[in-house]
């Protein structure tokens, strides 16, 4: 049988000495603590957080649209849809994207930030701070941004912002910009873009955007076109305003994506466009 040897013991509560219990009134001090909350700082942080959140949502929506447009043109390349459907989907998405981007741009311009601050540049630098990477360009491979932040730069359309910004600095009224042939290199549509480095991809984009003087010529000479798409209208307007906004960067990147998707199949696009025109003309004559 087990016997608890400590069962007969009693437990007494410890008591403080009387000297500690009777503290002198002179040694007792009342300290008044006042908690001050800076509502202004909290409101400012909340406001800027809201602005960056809207910018994040915008770029994410543009990213989803870009993926859908690229998929649409890959279906056209594979003869699953016709040219009319591909162009209608692209232009409708560009118009929707313009409305979304304009709302964010207007909110950003009315904020307490400097109106000259670029949304894309600020979002990119904020991402660099989060990742603890310095926003130093990787000039050794020909990039105007850090190669370790290439995914974010592509996501917020920083490459096209850099190219369009450099083009805006040379635009003059009543003058046409001229690119020296082969200055950035020669475009090879048969090259494998997937196997290119980041610097080679950026250089290929610069070569393709040597098309900008063509759009400037339309605006300078006032060439009237029976119909015009959103990209053409945007680039003609860019020649006048010389302003680069997120939508223009997005539209320019869509132009590049179409070339990257079609590659050497771009000649078939002209043939399909000509055949579509002939069918429309024939249908008008029969009616």
UniProtKB/TrEMBL annotation:
Residues 3-105 form the DUF6604 domain. Pfam families: DUF6604. This is DUF6604 domain-containing protein.
């Amino acid at each position: 049988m087990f016997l608890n040897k400590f069962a007969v013991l009693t437990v007494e509560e410890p008591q403080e000495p009387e000297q500690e219990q009777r503290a002198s009134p002179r040694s007792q001090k009342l300290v008044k603590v006042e908690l001050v909350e800076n509502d202004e700082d909290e409101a400012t942080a909340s406001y800027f957080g809201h602005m960056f959140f809207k910018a994040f949502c915008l770029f994410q929506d543009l990213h989803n649209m870009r993926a859908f447009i690229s998929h649409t043109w890959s279906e056209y390349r594979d003869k699953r849809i016709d040219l009319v459907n591909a162009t209608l989907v692209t232009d409708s998405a560009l118009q929707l994207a313009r409305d979304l981007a304009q709302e964010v741009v207007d909110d950003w311009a009315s904020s307490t930030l400097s109106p000259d601050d670029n949304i894309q540049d600020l979002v990119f630098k904020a991402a660099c701070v989060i990742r603890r990477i310095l926003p130093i360009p990787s000039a050794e491979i020909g990039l105007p941004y850090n190669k370790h932040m290439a995914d974010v730069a592509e996501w917020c359309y920083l490459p096209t912002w850099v190219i369009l910004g450099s083009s805006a600095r040379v635009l003059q009224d009543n003058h046409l910009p001229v690119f020296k042939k082969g200055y950035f290199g020669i475009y090879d549509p048969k090259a494998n873009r997937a196997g290119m480095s980041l610097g080679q991809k950026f250089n290929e984009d610069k070569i393709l955007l040597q098309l900008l003087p063509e759009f400037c010529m339309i605006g300078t000479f006032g060439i009237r076109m029976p119909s015009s798409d959103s990209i053409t209208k945007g680039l003609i307007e860019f020649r006048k305003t010389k302003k680069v906004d997120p939508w223009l960067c997005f539209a320019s990147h869509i132009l590049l994506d179409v070339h990257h998707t079609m590659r050497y199949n771009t000649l078939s696009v002209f043939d399909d466009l000509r055949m579509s025109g002939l069918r429309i003309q024939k249908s008008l004559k029969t009616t």
